[in-house]
UniProtKB/TrEMBL annotation:
Domain Xylose isomerase-like TIM barrel: 20-286
Signal peptide region: none
Pfam family, one: AP_endonuc_2
Cofactor requirements of the protein: Zn(2+)
Stored SUPFAM superfamilies: Xylose isomerase-like (SSF51658)
Organism ancestry: Eukaryota, Fungi, Dikarya, Ascomycota, Saccharomycotina
Protein name in the entry: Apurinic-apyrimidinic endonuclease 1
Compositional bias per record (Basic residues), positions renumbered to this chain: 343-352
Length: 352
């Protein structure tokens, strides 16, 4: 199991390697440039060489063990051509940085269709967004040599594409070279989108659906995060392992699932300040979970301990979710009444 974490690269991209080895990572993620800027300085040839040397020294294979995360500004589902092109240029710059560093994987968020359907093709907004994403991936693959572009699942909020496995099914049918594209499943995002992963039956059910709709060969990585918000809340709120609604059982199942061997399994849980030492503790926890049974007394005690630590945040988010659902039901009720009154008025007018 390649357990690791997203680490900092301040002072030079090569520092990410040292930061990763210091907390016991068997794989790691990093930003290749500022995730909140369109343009950043190029990586120097000297820094790139130092990065490769450190990877070799610490036994990281850049082609399989490293999963850079793309800019948050990229939106490859954007219906605005000019903005789509700006996103594509940013994506392509990231991919070329990967190949400069001999990195074989690259992960990014697919983006939002902004609720705009394609009237010319008669596509829904969602399908049009997935098609634009596929167009960008097909073009990016042509302009690069080997890096595998990994699309992350979303929490099902707003107009983001790939919040469900059906979107990934559609996406892979539109790809010219599907072997150059992969999927990264974020456990928090999946849970937020309505996929329950906190018990064995539903954990296996999710991966069965993934196999049927996407293909397990297309799974390239995982982001390991508990969820501060309840199932189906569509909130991207990461929590420390075992503290959230997924609970430690999800990560016990993860740590013992052979389907996940050999791919980067990356922590993105909240840090206290910028102390990446917490990731080292969670990596040790994941390694401790390997071979653990559900009824192991130590596992049960640890699960209960973590649930107590996360109780307050779960309670707060559950209350917010219930309030949101109540408001939604009221609004839907008002809309139903309004539509009914309009219908009656229309009938009365015809009667006159």
């Amino acid at each position: 199991m390649r357990f690791g974490a997203h680490v900092g690269m301040g002072g030079g991209v090569f520092n990410a390697v040292t930061n990763a080895i210091n907390i016991g990572c068997n794989a790691f993620a990093l930003f290749l440039k500022s995730p909140r800027r369109w343009e950043s300085p190029a990586i120097s040839a000297e820094d790139a060489e130092t990065f490769k040397e450190l990877c070799k020294k610490h036994n990281y294979n850049p082609r399989t063990d490293i999963l850079p995360h793309g800019s948050y500004f990229i939106n490859m589902a954007n219906p605005d051509e000019e903005k789509w092109q700006k996103s594509f240029d940013c994506l392509l710059d990231d991919l070329k940085r990967c190949e400069q560093l001999d990195i074989g994987l690259y992960n990014f968020h697919p983006g939002s269709h902004l609720g705009i359907a394609d009237t010319a093709s008669h596509e829904t907004a969602e399908n049009a967004g997935v098609r634009r994403l596929a167009d960008g991936l097909n073009r990016a693959i042509k302009e690069t040599n080997f890096v595998r572009v990994v699309v992350e699942n979303m929490a099902g909020h707003g107009n983001y594409v790939c919040g469900n496995l059906d979107d990934f099914h559609t996406l892979f049918k539109l790809l010219n070279d599907p072997k150059r594209v992969g999927v990264c499943i974020d456990t928090c995002h999946a849970f937020a989108a309505g996929y329950n992963l906190n018990n064995e039956e539903e954990w296996n059910g999710f991966w069965k659906e993934f196999e049927e709709k996407v293909g397990i060969e297309n799974l390239a990585a995982l982001h390991m995060n508990d969820s501060m918000a309840p199932l189906g809340a569509n909130r991207d709120l990461h929590q420390k392992l075992g503290w959230g609604f997924l609970g430690l059982e999800c990560f016990r199942l993860l740590a013992n699932d052979k389907r996940l061997e050999g791919i980067p399994l990356i922590l993105e849980t909240p840090l206290d300040g910028n102390d990446e030492g917490h990731y080292g503790e969670e990596i040790k926890l994941l390694e401790w979970l390997v071979g653990k049974e559900k009824d192991d007394p130590e596992f049960i005690a640890k699960s209960e301990e973590f649930q107590k630590l996360g109780f307050k945040s779960r309670e707060e988010q559950a209350a917010k979710f219930e309030k949101k659902k109540t408001v939604k039901r009221k609004n839907e009720g008002k809309a139903d009444i309004s539509n009914m009154m309009k219908g009656r008025a229309k009938k009365a007018k015809k009667g006159d």
